[in-house]
Design a protein that fits this description.
By secondary structure, this protein is of the alpha/beta class. The protein is built from 6 helices and 7 strands. It binds S-adenosylmethionine. S-adenosylmethionine (SAM) binds near residues 20, 24, 51, 72 and 77.
Protein backbone atom coordinates (compact mmCIF):
# COMPACT_ATOMS: atom_id res chain seq x y z
CA UNK A 1 0.00 0.00 0.00
CA UNK A 2 2.78 2.39 1.03
CA UNK A 3 4.67 1.63 -2.17
CA UNK A 4 1.61 2.43 -4.31
CA UNK A 5 0.97 5.71 -2.48
CA UNK A 6 4.55 6.76 -3.13
CA UNK A 7 4.34 5.92 -6.81
CA UNK A 8 1.29 8.13 -7.11
CA UNK A 9 2.54 11.08 -5.12
CA UNK A 10 6.21 10.91 -5.81
CA UNK A 11 7.13 8.56 -8.63
CA UNK A 12 4.87 10.04 -11.29
CA UNK A 13 5.38 13.70 -10.56
CA UNK A 14 8.88 15.10 -10.66
CA UNK A 15 7.73 18.53 -9.43
CA UNK A 16 6.31 17.13 -6.19
CA UNK A 17 9.28 14.84 -5.83
CA UNK A 18 11.77 17.65 -6.01
CA UNK A 19 9.70 19.89 -3.71
CA UNK A 20 9.85 17.23 -1.01
CA UNK A 21 13.52 16.65 -1.85
CA UNK A 22 12.83 13.07 -2.95
CA UNK A 23 16.25 11.68 -3.84
CA UNK A 24 16.60 7.96 -3.06
CA UNK A 25 19.90 7.02 -1.48
CA UNK A 26 22.00 4.47 -3.42
CA UNK A 27 22.35 1.33 -1.26
CA UNK A 28 26.15 1.45 -0.97
CA UNK A 29 25.87 4.63 1.15
CA UNK A 30 23.77 2.81 3.75
CA UNK A 31 25.92 -0.32 3.57
CA UNK A 32 29.05 1.79 4.26
CA UNK A 33 27.36 3.24 7.34
CA UNK A 34 26.15 -0.13 8.61
CA UNK A 35 29.57 -1.73 8.13
CA UNK A 36 31.00 1.11 10.19
CA UNK A 37 28.39 1.11 12.98
CA UNK A 38 28.09 -2.67 13.40
CA UNK A 39 24.86 -2.29 15.37
CA UNK A 40 23.52 -5.19 17.45
CA UNK A 41 20.60 -6.81 15.57
CA UNK A 42 18.11 -6.29 18.39
CA UNK A 43 18.07 -2.50 18.03
CA UNK A 44 14.95 -0.96 16.48
CA UNK A 45 15.70 1.54 13.72
CA UNK A 46 13.37 4.30 12.54
CA UNK A 47 13.78 5.72 9.02
CA UNK A 48 11.45 8.75 9.32
CA UNK A 49 11.76 10.13 5.76
CA UNK A 50 11.89 6.78 4.00
CA UNK A 51 10.81 7.79 0.47
CA UNK A 52 10.53 4.56 -1.49
CA UNK A 53 12.52 2.55 1.09
CA UNK A 54 15.95 2.79 -0.54
CA UNK A 55 17.60 2.92 2.91
CA UNK A 56 15.02 0.75 4.65
CA UNK A 57 15.69 -2.21 2.34
CA UNK A 58 19.38 -2.16 3.29
CA UNK A 59 18.64 -1.79 7.01
CA UNK A 60 16.29 -4.79 6.84
CA UNK A 61 18.99 -6.78 5.04
CA UNK A 62 21.01 -6.25 8.23
CA UNK A 63 18.14 -8.01 10.04
CA UNK A 64 16.93 -5.00 11.98
CA UNK A 65 13.35 -4.23 12.84
CA UNK A 66 12.78 -1.02 10.87
CA UNK A 67 9.96 1.49 11.27
CA UNK A 68 9.54 3.23 7.91
CA UNK A 69 7.54 6.47 7.67
CA UNK A 70 7.45 9.49 5.36
CA UNK A 71 5.42 12.66 4.99
CA UNK A 72 4.11 11.09 1.78
CA UNK A 73 2.39 8.40 3.80
CA UNK A 74 0.96 10.80 6.37
CA UNK A 75 3.81 11.01 8.90
CA UNK A 76 5.45 14.40 9.13
CA UNK A 77 8.54 13.48 11.14
CA UNK A 78 8.50 16.76 13.00
CA UNK A 79 5.03 15.89 14.36
CA UNK A 80 5.50 12.13 14.88
CA UNK A 81 6.72 10.05 17.81
CA UNK A 82 7.90 6.42 17.71
CA UNK A 83 9.73 4.16 20.14
CA UNK A 84 13.10 3.34 18.63
CA UNK A 85 16.79 2.97 19.50
CA UNK A 86 18.32 4.36 16.31
CA UNK A 87 17.26 6.91 13.70
CA UNK A 88 18.85 6.73 10.25
CA UNK A 89 17.78 8.90 7.34
CA UNK A 90 18.62 11.24 4.51
CA UNK A 91 16.42 14.17 5.49
CA UNK A 92 14.80 16.86 3.40
CA UNK A 93 17.67 19.35 3.14
CA UNK A 94 15.65 22.49 3.99
CA UNK A 95 14.45 21.09 7.33
CA UNK A 96 17.49 18.97 8.18
CA UNK A 97 18.39 21.09 11.23
CA UNK A 98 14.92 20.47 12.70
CA UNK A 99 15.31 16.75 11.97
CA UNK A 100 18.66 16.71 13.81
CA UNK A 101 17.40 18.60 16.88
CA UNK A 102 14.42 16.29 17.24
CA UNK A 103 16.27 13.05 16.48
CA UNK A 104 19.12 13.52 18.94
CA UNK A 105 16.55 13.99 21.68
CA UNK A 106 14.66 10.78 20.93
CA UNK A 107 17.23 8.13 19.94
CA UNK A 108 20.58 7.09 21.43
CA UNK A 109 22.13 6.72 17.98
CA UNK A 110 21.29 8.99 15.05
CA UNK A 111 22.82 8.98 11.57
CA UNK A 112 21.97 11.55 8.91
CA UNK A 113 23.37 11.64 5.39
CA UNK A 114 24.16 15.29 4.66
CA UNK A 115 26.06 17.29 2.07
CA UNK A 116 29.79 17.23 2.83
CA UNK A 117 29.90 20.97 3.33
CA UNK A 118 26.91 20.85 5.71
CA UNK A 119 28.94 22.00 8.71
CA UNK A 120 30.77 24.68 6.71
CA UNK A 121 28.01 27.15 7.45
CA UNK A 122 27.86 29.93 10.00
CA UNK A 123 24.14 29.32 10.55
CA UNK A 124 24.91 25.73 11.69
CA UNK A 125 27.77 26.60 14.04
CA UNK A 126 25.48 26.69 17.10
CA UNK A 127 23.77 23.44 16.06
CA UNK A 128 27.14 21.68 15.92
CA UNK A 129 28.25 23.15 19.27
CA UNK A 130 25.00 22.14 20.96
CA UNK A 131 24.80 18.68 19.39
CA UNK A 132 28.34 17.65 18.37
CA UNK A 133 28.27 14.48 16.26
CA UNK A 134 30.38 11.59 17.50
CA UNK A 135 31.50 11.02 13.91
CA UNK A 136 31.55 12.79 10.60
CA UNK A 137 32.09 10.14 7.93
CA UNK A 138 32.72 11.56 4.45
CA UNK A 139 32.06 9.13 1.59
CA UNK A 140 35.05 8.82 -0.71
CA UNK A 141 32.82 8.65 -3.80
CA UNK A 142 29.97 10.70 -5.22
CA UNK A 143 26.71 8.79 -4.91
CA UNK A 144 24.30 8.89 -7.84
CA UNK A 145 21.01 10.02 -6.29
CA UNK A 146 19.32 9.68 -9.69
CA UNK A 147 20.28 6.00 -10.01
CA UNK A 148 16.67 4.81 -10.01
CA UNK A 149 15.83 7.04 -12.98
CA UNK A 150 18.65 5.92 -15.24
CA UNK A 151 18.32 3.30 -17.90
CA UNK A 152 19.90 0.05 -16.81
CA UNK A 153 23.64 0.06 -17.37
CA UNK A 154 23.82 3.85 -17.93
CA UNK A 155 26.11 5.77 -15.59
CA UNK A 156 25.58 9.35 -14.47
CA UNK A 157 28.16 11.95 -13.53
CA UNK A 158 27.12 12.82 -9.99
CA UNK A 159 28.55 15.99 -8.49
CA UNK A 160 27.32 15.99 -4.89
CA UNK A 161 29.66 14.92 -2.11
CA UNK A 162 28.09 13.68 1.09
CA UNK A 163 29.01 12.57 4.59
CA UNK A 164 27.24 10.73 7.36
CA UNK A 165 26.98 12.64 10.63
CA UNK A 166 26.47 10.24 13.52
CA UNK A 167 25.37 11.18 17.02
CA UNK A 168 25.90 8.69 19.86
CA UNK A 169 24.50 9.51 23.27
CA UNK A 170 27.34 10.48 25.63
CA UNK A 171 29.97 10.66 22.88
CA UNK A 172 30.57 14.32 22.13
CA UNK A 173 34.11 14.42 20.75
CA UNK A 174 33.79 14.47 16.99
CA UNK A 175 35.95 12.10 14.98
CA UNK A 176 36.38 12.48 11.23
CA UNK A 177 36.83 9.22 9.32
CA UNK A 178 36.43 8.76 5.55
CA UNK A 179 34.46 5.68 4.39
CA UNK A 180 35.33 3.74 1.26
CA UNK A 181 32.70 2.53 -1.19
CA UNK A 182 31.70 -1.03 -0.34
CA UNK A 183 31.38 -3.67 -3.07
CA UNK A 184 27.77 -4.85 -3.24
C1 LIG B 1 16.22 12.98 0.14
S1 LIG B 1 14.71 12.03 0.21
C2 LIG B 1 15.33 10.62 1.04
C3 LIG B 1 14.45 9.41 0.96
C4 LIG B 1 15.04 8.21 1.73
N1 LIG B 1 15.38 8.58 3.08
C5 LIG B 1 16.28 7.71 1.05
O1 LIG B 1 17.36 7.97 1.58
O2 LIG B 1 16.17 7.10 -0.01
C6 LIG B 1 13.86 12.94 1.48
C7 LIG B 1 12.52 12.38 1.90
O3 LIG B 1 12.01 13.21 2.94
C8 LIG B 1 10.60 13.17 2.88
N2 LIG B 1 10.14 14.28 3.70
C9 LIG B 1 10.18 15.60 3.42
N3 LIG B 1 9.72 16.30 4.47
C10 LIG B 1 9.39 15.40 5.44
C11 LIG B 1 8.86 15.49 6.76
N4 LIG B 1 8.57 16.69 7.31
N5 LIG B 1 8.65 14.36 7.46
C12 LIG B 1 8.92 13.15 6.91
N6 LIG B 1 9.40 12.99 5.67
C13 LIG B 1 9.65 14.11 4.95
C14 LIG B 1 10.30 13.27 1.39
O4 LIG B 1 9.01 12.83 1.09
C15 LIG B 1 11.42 12.37 0.84
O5 LIG B 1 10.95 11.04 0.68
Amino acid sequence: MKQIALQLTAGNNKGTRRKLDFYPTPPECTVALMEFLKLPEDLIIWEPACGNNAMVDVLRDYRHEVIATDINTGHDYLETKMDCDVIITNPHFNISADFIKKAVNEAGIVAMLLKSQYWHAKKRYDLFKKFPPAYVLPLTWRPDFLYQEREKGKKGAPTMEVAWSVWIDGNETTKYLPLNKPKL
